[in-house]
Amino acid sequence: MKNIFILSFLIFASSVFSQELETLIYIDNSTSINRATTLSMEVSSVVEASNEVGVLMLGDSYKDGKPNPELYDLNDENLLNNISNICWTRKKIQTPKEIYSTIADVIDKRKLVVYNNSDKNRKQMVPIDLHLFFNVSTFVLKDIYKNVVKQLIVDYKLIDSQFNCIIHLDYTKKKEQYNDYIEHFKNKSNNIKIKEY
Asked: What is the pTM of this model?
């Protein structure tokens, strides 16, 4: 019996540690549609750099009381060819609650974080790279850092060494109030970075 327990544990541990990095990409193009070409180039570079394990989420507002995103697997061989069309698809603006719900749903369905039955705490199972694409005005005015990123970290108990978040901001017209907000977060954490384009 002892040998069976040890063997089971080793198989479980091996499967956990061998799981690949998951890349999650969330795009809000409700405001940035006029820069869809630039957006598609930014998204393409992230997809190309990924290990093709993960999901691209094109956000949209609720429909029939449920999140209404379009989801694309990163291992889809046609994804890179379709990114331009995806980024040219204008979607309705999402609330932070809808954005959080969409990302959380993908984390749950892909079992990237699971409940530990013994203590009912969540445990991160695989490393996660989360890429968020926003227009700077949406990011700042809806306080996406606090209402989405920080909330995901707290609720899912995401581990700094296993979680990276890169926030890609469409930021062509510099504004002082946006600069102040962004600067506040730029050095807040090593695993959360802001990239302006």
From this structure: 0.85
Adjacent-strand bridge partners of 129: 23, 164
pLDDT digits (tens, 9 = 90+) for 109-166: 999 998 776 666 788 899 999 999 999 999 999 999 999 999 999 999 999 899 999 9
- 75-84, Cβ contacts within 8 angstroms, sequence gap of 24 or more: 79/47, 80/44, 80/47, 80/48, 83/40, 83/43, 83/44, 83/47, 84/36, 84/37, 84/40
* Per-domain residue ranges of the chain: 20-196
- Residue 108 φ then ψ, to 5°: -65, -50
Q: Which CATH number does 20-196 carry?
A: 3.40.50
- Paired sense of beta strands 113-116 and 121-124, if any: antiparallel
